[in-house]
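Title: [Solved] Metalloprotease TldD/E C-terminal domain-containing protein 3D structure

Original question kept below for reference.
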Amino acid sequence: MDFKNEKDIIEYAFNMGCSNCQIILTEIEKVQISLISVGVKKVKNIIRKYNIQLVYENRYINLSIESDEITDYSKLIKYAIQHCYYKVDDYQINEVFKSQLYSDVDKKKFNTDILKVALDKKNEIEEQFKCKVNTLVFETTYISKNCIRINNIYTNNSTYITAGFVAQKDNKLPCTYLIDNFSGNIDSIDSLVLKSKLEAKDIIIMEELKGKVKFSYNAVKRLLEYLVNMFNAEYILNNRCKVKKNFLNKNIFNEYISLSINNIYSFDYEGVCSSNKYLIKDGIILDFLNNIRTQKIIGGTAGDVKVINLTNDFTLGVSDLLLIIKKKSNNEYNVNINEIDGQETIFDLRTGVISIVCYGYEGNNKNELHKYRKSIDLIDLMNKAKVCSGNKLLGNYNVPEFIIEI
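Solution (posted by the thread starter after getting help):
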């Protein structure tokens, strides 16, 4: 069906049984943004965007279409109406349809507490990112998890960026922020700026990491990813790891450190009953990552067989990992490390030495990004750690921030 103007679309929607229809046409200057120390890099593109909002039998439907994407709106509206009982693309806050947000969604009452979480995050983004959030979007894929996403953020000079997050009321999952093509579990809006600077290669020299160094949640998580490999029984039995078989029940780490696995599955991929266990408790190594074969040779408990999604190969790994450091710092530091570069960092399992390449700032000065490097024994690094914050869940790793003196 050929639509000559917006009135034709509205008339067709009412003929299909919709009780309300509104079309918002926006012509925006869409900009891909990279934040750099001297300003903003932009790639401009003018687009026309149709936002068609429908109400059909007390179901809210929102369709966002760029003008060059589709010409046959009738098929799109038909499809949306036919499938709105099973999956609605998103729920957008709008004064006309706001009441629809609080009706039953797929026979589940929408939790308005989640809206409060979103508004709190909206205020945080506006304050720290110096911009205006004009849209909140609810997505059905997140409704069951009580999650919400923010997008369509306009800066003060009316340029357009895409940014957002997934927030959860009980905070069991970390917030996920997005900007341009970036996505990942990051702990603050500052990390958005950091990632954009990395993309813009806004780094001049590499410096030796020294002094009192604070490692962010993301950086600590990355260190744990290296550390947990040292407990892989396959590596230990093949003499590919600094941790040895005779380290079991030995005090190898600082007495203030504990590292535990909290299995979320009843069985592993060998069918072995999975149970929570300590790899390290009060500095003593109590267990390894085992399958049935390695457990019989090396000791400890089995139940740690996982599957690599891309290849379906079996491997030894963890589901949930909790790091506890009981020794506290005085929160004084001169270097703040936000990210560890996983591509440039080299970890030698045999010696336990990690050659870290990381990014951060001097103190709280976030105007100039620094690139650092340091080679250090990973066990020694962990033994120097003094916690400076409470724990936070990033993916399946529950970690604190900590400070070490190098």
